[in-house]
Prior knowledge:
Radius of gyration: 15 Å
Structural class: alpha+beta
Shape: globular
Amino acid sequence: MEELKYKDITEKIIGASFEVHKFLGNGFQEVIYQRALTYEFRKAGLDFAREIEQNIYYKDLEEPIGTRRADFVVERKVLVELKALAKLEDVHIAQALNYLKAYQLEIGLLINFGSKSLEFKRLILSQKSVKSINQ
């Protein structure tokens, strides 16, 4: 089986997410989970930036048409987008994939704290294809 890119980083992120969900459960706003993950990421020794603003460009326009903020970029390699919803939908996967493109990153995690059990998807953006791996 093919080794997952940045597996060591994504395992720590997912582990931290399970720890947060185990303690808080579901039902809080996204920002609560974001703050708790900040604590767990530090504890796990992960280097991360929270809510980095990224310009969004359209075609050959030199000026950005807007900005977006991903919840976390971990180790400058993995984008992490959080949700606190009853259920993840395709639109949330599309949003996270668009963030990967905008941030020029290849690997992302979409993590949902809103369901009874923690839900996450590993996203891979490559030149050839876009994949969402259900986990």
